[in-house]
Amino acid sequence: MAFAIRFDRTGGPEVLHRVEIEVGEPGPGEVRVRHHAVGLNFADIYYRSGRYPVTLPAGLGVEAAGVVEAVGPQVDGFRAGDRVTYTGSPLGAYSSERVLPAAQLIRLPDEIDSVTAAATTTRGLTAAYLLRRIHPLRAGDTVLLHAAAGGVGLIFAQWAKLLGINVIGTVSTEEKAKIAAAHGCDHVLIHTREDVAARVRELTGGTGVPVVFDSIGATTFDGSLDSLSRRGLLVSFGAASGPVPPVDPMTLTGKGSLFLTRPGLADYIADPAERAELAGELFGHIAAGRIAPEVNQRYDLSDAVRAHHELESGATIGSSVFTL
């Protein structure tokens, strides 16, 4: 019998529970996929806690990799036995198998195993659009990256090094600082004990950086603004410490005519051609060994409660996956 992790009310990790499910056959434009690995992402906490509203009861998870088991009518390009990965709505990746739209699938190269795919599809495509679509970064540019030892951060730093971009990374501990440095960060700041904006100014000769990539949110937002050079761009793409406060546009003017964007991955992979291009670049780097994802936490899918506790506490490093 297939199973899934569901929640009937919002709250802490304890609201998650396992249920048996009937998956059924795929309809027009759909496929049934048996999961081999499921991605664990910080956004899963937002859905579970109620920060991102969903209709309850609900499944959880947006990312998984596995094998196509059945194909419905009007599906072109996929057949039973194909190895695939995906990221995006609808929720429900925390399951042993599921039916979903074929349009979401990305075919996996032979060199990429399911665990690597589940650990890097969301994080890797996020790093891809941050580096390749948000701002015209050039070799020699210096950027500030928060959460540099996280799943996105470790991929981002390695990719930035390939592009000749210098990265000032922030982390919360000495252990994470060593890992971030080993994966491409040119400078690593421990934000829990350093004035990040002051150190960024020091490292850039007083000018600041043209772009800050901030997935932490509330606790780092002001420092991120103060780290930017004139007409710099703050890319706020997450809120691990809580949502950022309301921003008076005059604040941006007063700090150097700054720009602020709050992007979402979905809008950068909505176009199938663009998604294929970004995925091809990502998996090409991984297959060639130019980017080495760190899958440091592996959990049984039935152990979702413990996995969420550890992710939410900040105890994890790199990427986390569920295996089946």
Radius of gyration, whole Å? 20 Å
The averaged pLDDT comes out at: 96
The oligomeric status of these chains comes to single chain
In the CATH scheme, the class of the largest domain would be Alpha Beta
Summed up, the helix count is: 9
Strand content: 25-35%
Count of individual domains: 2
Q: What is the second-level CATH architecture of the largest domain?
A: Alpha-Beta Complex
Distance between the termini: 13 Å
Could you give the topology of this structure?
Layout (H helix, E strand, L loop, with lengths): L1 E6 L9 E5 L8 E11 L1 H8 L8 E2 L3 E9 L11 E5 L9 E5 L4 E2 L6 H19 L9 E4 L5 H12 L3 E6 L2 H9 L4 E4 L5 H8 L5 E6 L6 H6 L1 E9 L12 H6 L4 E3 L10 H16 L7 E6 L3 H10 L5 E5 L1
Parallel strand pairs: 9-10, 9-12, 10-11, 12-13, 13-14, 15-16
Antiparallel strand pairs: 1-2, 1-4, 3-5, 3-7, 3-16, 5-6, 6-8
Helix pairs in contact: 2-3, 2-8
Structure in words:
- It is a single chain.
- The chain has 324 residues and is of the alpha/beta class.
- It has two domains: 2-122 and 271-323, Quinone Oxidoreductase, Chain A, domain 1, CATH 3.90.180.10; 135-262, NAD(P)-binding Rossmann-like Domain (Rossmann fold), CATH 3.40.50.
- 29% of the residues lie in helices and 27% in strands.
- It has nine helices and 16 strands.
- The strands form three sheets. Strands 3, 5, 6, 7, 8, 15 and 16 form a seven-stranded mixed beta sheet that branches.
- Helix 3 links the parallel strand 9 (142-145) and strand 10.
- Helix 2 crosses helix 3 (151-162) and helix 2 (114-132) crosses helix 8.
- The longest helix is centred in the middle third of the chain and has 19 residues, at 114-132.
- It is globular and about 60 Å long.
